[in-house]
Each structure stands twice: as C-alpha cells, then as structure tokens.
Amino acid sequence: MKSVKHLLDTKQAIIISVSENISVLDALKVMTEKNISAVLVIEYEQLRGIFTERDYARKIILQGKSSKDTLIKEAMTANPITIKFSDSIDHCMELMTDKHIRHLPIVENDEVKGMVSIGDVVKFIIADQKQTISQLESYISG
C-alpha cells in the first residue's frame, strides 16, 4: 500500500505558511506569488489552520467583508484535518472525498512536514498505475 511518505518522495515538501495575524489580503498575495490555492496558518511552529480560496469566497466575499481589514485567523479553517507519513494514499482520497476538501497538511509529532493537494494525489495515483501497467506488460511479453 502506497503511503503519504511515498508521495512526498516524488515532490518537494515545501511549506508555505502565514501568521494568523496578517490580513486576508496579504495571505492572498502570498498565494498568488507562490501560485497556490491554499496556505497553512502556523503560529509558534504550531498548525493553527488553513486558508483556501474556498474560505476566501465563502467567508470574505460572500459576507461582504474587507480582505484588507480582516485577519486571516477570522477567515481560516481552524484545526484542519491532518495526515501522517504512514497514512495511505487511499485514506487521503477518502478524506478528501468525504470531507469535500482539497488539501491535507502533513503533521508528525506536532510538527508540520508539508501538505498534499488533491492534484498531488491524483498525479501520484496515475503515475503509480502507469508503472504497474508497464510492469504487467513486461511480464506478459517477457
């Protein structure tokens, strides 16, 4: 069974985060600069939440709030669902599907180690299936 650790071995585990006391506008600038759709909110090396484009749409735009005047801690999803290196890719897919989320922070021993997106998971599954097909074709023709 393939795990989150296997997936992380195929990509860089870059942690992009913001403080909970910055404005939503500043967080959006970070997200735009890094071309990401979610950012972790970390304070004193502890995961406090996650802020996504969906949070922005639902908690800021639709409620008529100001991105400039609203702090990220007011708009983030606090205590997000997290995963560990040992969790299976299937488990990640189940969580994302059942909870309607697209990002899962990776936390080991209370330390943030990275984040996995739905795109990362799909890309990993496709690559893994291609490898399996290739091995089966080699076995059949060999």
Element order: H for helix, E for strand: HEHEEHHEHEEH
Strand content: 15-25%
Which shape, going by the Cα principal axes?
Answer: elongated
Which structural class best describes the helix and strand composition?
Answer: alpha+beta
Any idea of the CATH class? Alpha Beta
Number of domains: 1
Kindly, what is the distance between the CA atoms of the first and last residues, rounded to a whole number of angstroms? Answer: 26 Å
Mean pLDDT: 94
How large, in whole angstroms, is the Cα Rg? 18 Å
Helix content: 40-55%
For the record, the CATH architecture stands as Roll
User: Can you count the helices?
Assistant: 6
**Residue ranges: pLDDT <50 for 5 or more in a row?**
none
Q: Describe the main β-sheet briefly.
A: 4 strands, mixed
The CATH topology label is CBS-domain
- According to CATH, the homologous superfamily is CBS-domain
